[in-house]
Amino acid sequence: MSDLSGRTAIVVGASRGLGHGIATALAQAGAPVVAVSRTPAEFPDAGVGSVRTEIADAGDPRVAADLLDRHSPEVIVVVAGSVPHMRPLQQQTWETFSANWESDVRIAFHWLREVLLTPLRPGSRVVVFSSGAALNADGSPLSGGYAGAKATQRYITAYAQGESRAAGLDITFTSVLPRFAPSTGVGRPAVEAYAARAGLEVDDFLRHHAPLLTPEITGKAVVDLVQADAVDVAPAYVLNGTGLHALS
């Protein structure tokens, strides 16, 4: 996987934020990239690779099956999900509380299932983005079911790795749990809500979490991950401003 030229990568949730940074970095590393999102996205100066956009609902299981059949990718990165409703428990409704289960977990489930059913060719890599919130002892108390949903994404990615191993598919699955990325559509509302709860200005709150994660750092980390030897890839990583850190 050290050379990504000619190795198609699908990035699910590529229109903005971390997904956009990942799609751009993979293209710059030479991969033909299929950028999947609900809304159009622009990728100027993508580099030696190319970026083709596919406007689609990643939560529709037919989309995963169709795109895998049409593009035969060797790299899949699932970043898509919804922005959590930043309110304490008593100010949530069941619909807002469960939103990330109905989007993030559903998307991961459909794509992992289709990867195993297709299956992707031996040596392929699948990276699912969870969240550092899944590791917090108290979850993420201002974001409804977000932390639980992101933990479940990590679990089912591990389940998929077990099925790949049992079937001798030679597909490597790993999950990435990013910390605060305040420039993104998910990260900024979370930062603002938790800063307000702590009685801090946003800048003061962020100083406690430096160095901060950016789409550019994320893109480089994913390129490094999919280029690494499969035997060296951990089941899960925390990702922060200093890069990837393997979880035991």
From TrEMBL:
Ketoreductase domain location: 7-186
Pfam families found in the cross-reference section: adh_short
SUPFAM superfamilies: NAD(P)-binding Rossmann-fold domains
InterPro entries associated with the record: KR_dom, NAD(P)-bd_dom_sf, SDR_fam
Family to which the UniProt record says this protein belongs: Belongs to the short-chain dehydrogenases/reductases (SDR) family.
The protein, known as: SDR family oxidoreductase
